[in-house]
Write a structure and sequence with these properties.
CATH topology: Monooxygenase
Number of strands: 0
Distance between the termini: 66 Å
Order of helices and strands: HHHHH
Helix content: over 70%
Largest sheet: none
Shape: flat
Number of helices: 5
CATH architecture: Up-down Bundle
Length: about 110
């Protein structure tokens, strides 16, 4: 195993462990008000992208960290859902449209 691959495994372990304290605290307290649903969603989608990239290039550290982080995020989504704190999809769509579409002003 080369040094770069070992560094990749070490980094993926650390990246995965960053989610563990949040998952444990949220699971124990069942309080998810301070968790942003948008941040969770974008993080999940970003890790899905890294997982796909890892699978495409047969990169074990990316596959490991991407899949483990996504699994660790599932309880956070579950608690947000149970607490009825997930953002309405219509609001997300409207917010994204407002970011990328400039309103037309007629003279």
């Amino acid at each position: 195993m080369v040094f770069g691959e070992l560094a990749g495994f070490f980094a993926s372990i650390l990246a995965t462990l960053t989610f563990l304290p949040q998952v444990l605290k949220t699971w124990r307290t069942r309080d998810s008000k301070s968790l942003s649903a948008m941040t969770l969603t974008f993080s999940f989608l970003g890790n899905l992208g890294w997982l796909i990239n890892g699978l495409a290039f047969n990169n074990a550290p990316l596959i490991m960290s991407g899949s483990l982080i996504m699994v660790l995020m599932l309880p956070l989504f579950y608690i947000k859902y149970k607490n009825k704190e997930l953002v309405d999809l219509a609001k997300i769509r409207a917010g994204l449209l407002a970011l990328f579409i400039v309103p037309r002003t007629d003279p």
